[in-house]
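== Sequence entry ==
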Amino acid sequence: MTDIADLIEPLIAFRRDIHAHPELGFAEHRTAGCIAEQLRALGLEVHEGIGRTGVVGVLRNGTSGRSIGLRADMDALPIQEQTNLPYASTTPGTFHGCGHDGHVAMLLGAAQHLTRTRHFDGTVNFFFQPAEEGQGGAREMVNEGLFERFPCDRVFGLHNWPDLPAGTIATRPGPIMGAADKFEIILEGRGGHAAIPQDTPDAIQAAAAMVQQLNAIISRRIAATASAVLSITQIHGGHTHNVIPAEVRVSGTVRTFDPAVQDRIEASIREIAAGIGIANGVTATVDYQRYYPATINDAEAAQEALDAAATVGNAVIAPDPAFTSEDFAFMLQACQGAYIWLGQAKGDGGTPLHNPHYDFNDDVLALGIRLHVALAERHLA
């Protein structure tokens, strides 16, 4: 591969500028504008406003009808940064704590390199996606006709992975990231004086019993050979010491890889809520939302990714999927492809994603660029 050394320093500066000016999902107006400006400077065909704030750059070369999509997410998180870096976020409560600033820089670097070398025959579509962090930006782009407007034989998404050492690239056939569901159960009684509990259905008591039963779903209703996580993350109820509250809310998340397991867990939550309501004389209402499906790699595309990765770094098959979720799943439901982890840990480890002290490791920018380029050049050889 032709050297990319001259691209790195400007891309680091670009990445750090994006880091200093983070934007939340569907509000990435400055970020999208900077990306579109860079793509136009390269002479690419540029499309804006796809999936509300998404950007697509199209690079064609040769006569082949083959095509590939390469995706980078570009939104930040609602977290207060605590890195004290000179390029730390200038927007209070908003922070690139997942490395999407690095993903943008790597994909721009790939666009720059492929534009000047053109060692491929076909079309490369560069997808800069908004709102990955829980808002379904990929779904928005797909629903707006992403793959009808920009057809792809394959689509690949790359994410930095602090659990892997820098230089290592991993993926796997089949599930690689979990489906993400969220639930809220509202327990409603009448409310009353805490000194006269016999006259008041106790929503607090109901919530306590419910938490115990919900936490037993995985161990008692799901086969030991299946993989699933259920976590209670919020309980809200009451406002003073001598009042039994009229309402308590219990919320949490479910992570799965198998739709049948997902169905079983949702049904169990509803059954338990109904039973707890009857037993405690309260009304139990369940709001269960499946907001991200499991990210499932096409087997051939995963192998294609591993073959490309082996030409630029240490390629390994990921032994297990992760229970964290990724809305690239929506793109994989619409087009064959694979999701790939790029190791970025330094020394004996790396700061985890979504941590207020996290920062993208600029040392892996070059490897990320080379991987994007290898995917395109191999598929469009």
About this structure: The CA atoms of residues 223 and 246 lie 37 Å apart. The first helix runs from residue 5 to 20.
